[in-house]
Amino acid sequence: MLRAMAQRVLVVEDEEDIAFPLVRTLEREGYSVHWVDNGQKALDSLSAEPADVVILDLGLPDFDGLEVCKRAREAGFSGAIMIVTARAGELDRVVGLDYGADDYLAKPFGLAELQARVRALLRRTTGPGTTTTSNANGHGGLRIDVAARRVYAGEDEVPLTGKEFEVLNILAANRDKVVSRGRLMADVWDENWYGSTKTLDVTIGRLRQKLESQGVTERVVAVRGVGFRLEGGPPDA
């Protein structure tokens, strides 16, 4: 399906045998893809035309990918950054995320997995400036400002944590459809998350409480054994 406006992906990778199949795969998905082979070109490209997602290799010939990540954030880049690297240590993962990365994928990786990660990042960090999930006239209309990562009930902001926002954003993008527990865990936490899935239940519980306290008419409904669904709206919707 053609997108009215293709989302832009910047691939920063100095190894051609990795970059070429990656670029071809993403272009087949309908993305507008630009490839550069070093850190300075990446920063110049982002300055000229911001991307929705940056796929960033750490082992670049001029300077480290973490430095690219840091400089891009300092320059005001607000899109998603996914680090890909052969450095598999947990320390590198933590450091990368501290530098402003949104996700981390260890080499070697499958192209299908990378595609899924890119889609997840786009759901979390891009989209229309404001998504209205129901009729926002009067009290109780839920509005999600994706770019600013803020949620409003009518004119009042609902204070959410990062994880609460991401869960709600995914549920709102799939309004009235069940989103599985597995997908929420993979998209919001990480598909390699080794903690208890009770983390999701606690986050859902807090999210429900905050929405209800603000008079939001949409409800997060649990579908036993499957997942969760966002449903409902103002009576006049």
UniProtKB/TrEMBL annotation:
Residues 8-122 form the Response regulatory domain. InterPro entries: CheY-like_superfamily (IPR011006), OmpR/PhoB-type_DNA-bd (IPR001867), Sig_transdc_resp-reg_C-effctor (IPR016032), Sig_transdc_resp-reg_receiver (IPR001789), WalR-like (IPR039420), WH-like_DNA-bd_sf (IPR036388). Residues 134-232 form the OmpR/PhoB-type domain. The keyword Cell membrane does not apply. The modification 4-aspartylphosphate is found at residue 57. GO terms for biological process: regulation of DNA-templated transcription. Gene3D superfamilies: 3.40.50.2300, 6.10.250.690, Winged helix-like DNA-binding domain superfamily/Winged helix DNA-binding domain. It comes from the Bacteria. The keyword Phosphoprotein applies. Keywords: DNA-binding, Phosphoprotein, Two-component regulatory system. Residues 134-232 bind DNA. One of its GO terms (cellular component) is protein-DNA complex. GO terms for molecular function: phosphorelay response regulator activity; transcription cis-regulatory region binding. This is Response regulator transcription factor.
